[in-house]
Amino acid sequence: MEYQFQTGTLLLLIAAVVAMLTRRLRLSYSVGLVVAGIILAVLPFAPKIILTKDLIYTALLPPLLFEAAFFIHWNQLRRDFSLIVVLATLGVLLSASVTATGMNFLANWQWIDALVFGTLIAATDPVSVITIFREAKAQGRLLLLIEAESLFNDGTAAVAFGVVIALAAGQHLSSIEITAMLLKTIIGGSLCGAAVAFGSLLLAGRTDDHLVEITFTTVAAYGSFLLADHFGLSGVLATITAGLIIGNFKSLKSFSERSKEAVQAFWEYAAFIANSLVFLLIGMHEARQNFAVIWLPALIAIALVTLGRAIAIYPCCLIFSRSSLRVTGRHQLSLFWGGLRGALALALALGLPPTIPLREEIITISFAVVAFSVLVQGLTMVPFLRRMREI
Q1: What domains are there in the chain, each with its CATH number?
Q2: CA 209 vs CA 214, 270, 273: distances in Å
Q3: d(CA 218, CA 266)
Q4: Mapping DSSP to helix (H, G, I), strand (E, B) and coil, where does residue 267 land?
Q5: What confidence tens digit (pLDDT) does each residue in 311-367 have?
Q6: DSSP state of 375
Q7: What is the enclosing helix (H) or strand (E) of 295?
């Protein structure tokens, strides 16, 4: 326990120093953390931390999802909701299909391995995407689209991944059974999130103690995720739903004015801590990956994931080209290049059952795609947005 406390303190110290340095040098904080993690991993006193699905998926992801959803205003989201839903559903499925098909034909993977990789890598990661775009000070509709799409497509990818894993385990599912499983997971997860959120709001309205109210929001973030996951539903969608409801029902005055400020400040800090740990851990484990042995399939995967993102954005936006929800060419290009991968893909990859034939190769290639995404796309995102005149 003492060793774990010391390790956590060291990581927080590094995160704080990196935050100061990157802001002074006007560099990306998330990229700085990944680089710091890589450097830390090769030092003799580097802490030995085992990166697991539970650490990312259960401990660090819920507060990040909740915080991002908490600060999205429903009035702004409602206008573009149909566009975001199409990008987060059809877009994810198109992206996964392109990647899976390419890995099957170009990397000679079996279909089931290709499908597993395609679904887990299809969604953009809200941790990476939102951090980069907020650092770049993107505003307006572009920020809303990138934030909301990265949140909702996480839910789609996680649900699709569950279906593919069931098929990989040998379950024979008809199209009707697959559809029923998808609806159950999506609707059930959303209902769990709504139930926990309204329960938390009801209890929060009975106290003026801002510390207790902050505790209720924390319970909502983790409780919604764990409740849905316990019943085999989408924990990701549950936490997103809880964050949206609590963030947008503040007008019901369940929280006092002082409490609203305290809750907002707490979740900004919680997201900062979780973000810092995620990127540091990614950097530390990137340094330990042996990319040399899988360099060719890794390059193929990076190219396919990038192509899949383009297929996810442009055809979906074309659907709305003659409507009031039309997305400008600059916004489409920004959405395409801003489709970073990160913590969610790694969590799903690390949680793969041992029965998947190419499990270790899928994990290593997932790390390679994330490394390219964070280091290459992350480093070029600010100048890219500046050139697009988005900031």
Answers
A1: 52-387 (1.20.1530.20)
A2: 9, 19, 24
A3: 10
A4: helix
A5: 999 999 999 999 999 999 999 999 999 888 888 888 889 989 888 889 999 999 999
A6: I
A7: helix 295-319
> In the numeric block, which tokens belong to residue 241?
């739903």
Which of 4-8, 23-27, 111-115 has the highest average model confidence (pLDDT)? 111-115
Amino acid at 293: V
Is the separation of the CB atoms in 156 and 88 below 8 Å? yes
∠ Cα 354 356 358 (to 5°): 110
Q: Are 165 and 124 in contact (CB under 8 A)?
A: no
pTM for this predicted structure: 0.90
Sorted by sequence, the CB contacts under 8 Å of residue 31 that are 6+ apart come out as: 22, 374, 375, 378, 379
Long-range contacts of 201-206 (CB under 8 A, 24+ apart): 201/245, 201/246, 201/249, 201/252, 201/254, 202/254, 204/254, 204/255, 204/259, 205/252, 205/253, 205/254
Cβ-contact 333, 381 below 8 angstroms: no
Residue type, 300: I
Tokens encoding 270: 């919680």
**Rounded distance between C-alpha atoms, residue 288 and residue 41, angstroms:** 8
pLDDT band at residue 189 under the 50/70/90 scheme? very high
Say how many C-beta atoms besides its own lie within 10 A of residue 387's C-beta: 12
Report the mean per-residue pLDDT for the chain. 88
Summarised one tens digit per residue, pLDDT across range 283-310 is: 888 888 888 888 999 999 999 999 999 9
